[in-house]
Amino acid sequence: MSRPLKVAAAQLGPIARGESRRQVVDRLIAMMREAHQKGVRLMVYPEMALTTFFPRWYMTDQAEIDSFFESEMPGPETRRLFDLAATLGIGFYLGYSEKTTERGGVHRYNTSILVDPTGKIVGKYRKVHLPGHAEHEANRPWQHLEKRYFEVGNLGFPVWRMMGGIMGMCICNDRRWPETFRVMGLQGVEVVMLGYNTPSENGVAPEGARLRMFHNHLTMQAGAYQNGTYVIGTAKGGIEEGVPMLAGSCVIDPNGEIVALAQTEGDELAIADIDLDRCRFNKDTVFNFAAHRRIEHYGLITARTGAVPPAE
Question: What share of the chain is helix, strand, coil (3-state, %, to 5)?
Fold first, then answer.
């Protein structure tokens, strides 16, 4: 039996701070048209795909901060993307900054959505593992203020049935935490979609671009193998507002092997023909969770946050 699906990591080059939503959506649309010409049925855009990565700046004017957020989805500018997806029959993942009114107040999240080939939103995820810091740090060449501008996601790691498979989502730093993939793996996930905006230099630590890219791919490949799932990781690359951004967008198979890899740091599709039935082997053998997991020994994973060494 086979469940084929042609997928694409829809990598973006830099987005300038002054680039309008219309200009960015024009780029997303151009990539969707190209993907359709090449037979793609599911595409993954990066984290914060509609704007520059604004947490690199310390801001105090809430109106300025909110200019980077979307209050509705689809909105006036993004509606065109949804309409085209419905016309072409393409499903997609889109990362963006979400401003919403819930529980009697205004909340802001680093969010992604899953849109089916009819243009309908079928899933939403809010980033759980927020990196960086909340206050200005003068020693940094650029800031990483996700903890200032976003709340921790409150939707967990759900999965959805779409296009004949079981789909899950996460965002950027989530890929570094094995719990991200395992929670979705325990729900039978077959495709994990993951957008990221990652500098290719640490900024405050001696960690160069080569090691950053190694870690980028290592975490996604391990997550794919250990949970018998495909992973589609999509970057924003190039020099964005003076900051070098890691590219390396890729499609990874359930054995942890990269089967498609972007070759540039600009707008580019990394396309792969996948077969969702290939997830079955690892799920039924080495990583047959029902047969081999021993949850009675895993209590510390949810009982403790920080590491506590044994007493001397």
Answer: 30, 30, 45
